[in-house]
Structure formats: structure tokens, C-alpha cells
Design a protein that fits this description.
The chain contains 7 helices and 9 strands; from the N terminus they run H-E-E-E-H-E-H-E-E-E-H-H-E-H-E-H. The protein has about 230 residues and is of the alpha/beta class. It has a 9-stranded mixed beta sheet with strand order 3-1-2-4-5-6-7-8-9. Iron/sulfur cluster binds near residues 47, 51 and 89.
């Protein structure tokens, strides 16, 4: 349970509609099918996982409580159609579901980046879910929630972040076993600084995989600086 959920029943409705937010910023979407679009990112604080290669550890703690009204209003000031709710693990705060709904109601194209460890079945169907399947190199592959797969629609995406050849072979076995590419788009991405992008590209081509390779565009542009 996320901090603050335990006392929500005793708070007034306005206060109960709050989320702990690490940052809200506008940047270029660096990943997924929306890569390249100017996008507002709403980063929720907290994550129950600890992936070895996590690049957003600063979002594990801290941030501040914001009302959902306030968040939606701030997003509007950036004047972008695309909004990405991310973390940390955004679904670790239950009221994230309300935020997603409200952002869709406001007319945005909303995507959700989630670890794949928590239930996605209650996410508003208008939201594009980008669900990780954690490979062994992350150290968190036992947390994959396989029951999420039937909840994925053709508009959603499954993402593998791969640290080495063993991760790649593991991902291929999962792809084949669950026929993931028949359900939605599948993304393969190299861990920055661990697996050479060209090597991954050559493996994908050699194996004729029905997957889409992607690089993290924001890292090419700005490196690992928070706020991008
Ligand atoms: S799920 Fe995401 S935020 Fe959480 S530890 Fe893994 S990479 Fe970091």
C-alpha cells in the first residue's frame, strides 16, 4: 500500500483525491509508440521494485502531495495532447486510476508506464498501457504478473528492457510461449550502457523477430538528467 492510502477513509473527499508526485514536466517522449511527441510526464513517487538498472531511483522517495484537480490543471498549462503517467510504479498509488481517468476525460492521449508487477485490469480502457516484462538481468523477473497479459489490448505495448544475451534469449522464449506479438506491439530495448544497441539490432534481424526495437530518445538528447 502506498503512503497515504491507509488514512484516506478519514480524509475529506478533496484531500483523499491526492497523489504523491515526484515531478511534472514537459519533454520529448523517448520511448514507446509515442516516441518523439512533445509529452507531459506525471511521475508518481514510489516503487515496490528495485531493478538493477533503474534510472529513476530519485522517484522512490520524496515528492509532494498534490490533488488530482491540481495535477490535471498543471498538465493543461503545458498545452500538449500527449500525457504519460509514469514512476516509480504509478499503480502503487491506488488513486492513480482516478488520475488516468481524469486525464482522458480532459481530452488527452494518455499512456501509462508500469512495471508489469501490479494489476492493470482496472486501468481506464482509453489509456495506452506500456507494460514491462522484467527480464532476469533486472533482478525482478519473479515479480512479473503474468495475469496481466489477457488484460492487454491491441493498442497497448509490452516492453522488454534487455541487459545482455541471456535476457534476450529469455525474452524470445516468453514471446513465443505467450504469442505476445499477436496480442499487441512488443518492444525490445537495450539497457543503456550495458547492451550495445547495434548488437541487439543484429540479433533481432538475424532471428526475424516480430518486435520493434527502440532506443531511449530522451537519453540521446539529454542523458540521465531528471526532468527529461
Ligand atoms: S519498476 Fe521502474 S521505477 Fe521501479 S525499480 Fe524498476 S525500473 Fe525503477
Amino acid at each position: 500500500m502506498a503512503e497515504g492510502d491507509s488514512n484516506s477513509q478519514t480524509l475529506s473527499p478533496a484531500l483523499a483525491e491526492r497523489l504523491r508526485i515526484s515531478e511534472i514536466f514537459c519533454s520529448i517522449q523517448g520511448e514507446s509508440r509515442s516516441a518523439g511527441w512533445p509529452t507531459v510526464f506525471v511521475r508518481l513517487t514510489g516503487c515496490p521494485l528495485r531493478c538493477t538498472w533503474c534510472d529513476t531511483e530519485y522517484a522512490f522517495h520524496g515528492g509532494g502531495w498534490r490533488s488530482i484537480d491540481d495535477i490535471v490543471q498543471e498538465v493543461a498549462t503545458h498545452k500538449t495532447h500527449h500525457v504519460c503517467v509514469t514512476g516509480g510504479e504509478p499503480l502503487a498509488q491506488k488513486r492513480c486510476l482516478t488520475l488516468l481517468q481524469r486525464l482522458c476525460d480532459a481530452g488527452h492521449e494518455v499512456s501509462l508506464e508500469t512495471s508489469g508487477a501490479l494489476d492493470v485490469s482496472q486501468v481506464d480502457p482509453r489509456v495506452i498501457k506500456v507494460v514491462d516484462l522484467k527480464a532476469p538481468g533486472s533482478g525482478e523477473h519473479k515479480r512479473n504478473r503474468w495475469q496481466n497479459i489477457p488484460s492487454l489490448a491491441p493498442s497497448d505495448q509490452i516492453k522488454f528492457v534487455l541487459a545482455d544475451r541471456a535476457d534476450y534469449d529469455w525474452a524470445n522464449a516468453v514471446l513465443t510461449e505467450h504469442k505476445l506479438h499477436e496480442r499487441c506491439e512488443v518492444l525490445y530495448s537495450p539497457v543503456h550502457g550495458s547492451l550495445a544497441p547495434r548488437e541487439l539490432a543484429e540479433w533481432i534481424l538475424a532471428d526475424h523477430l516480430p518486435v520493434r526495437m527502440q532506443m531511449q530518445l530522451h537519453k540521446l538528447l539529454w542523458g540521465d538528467v531528471p526532468g527529461h
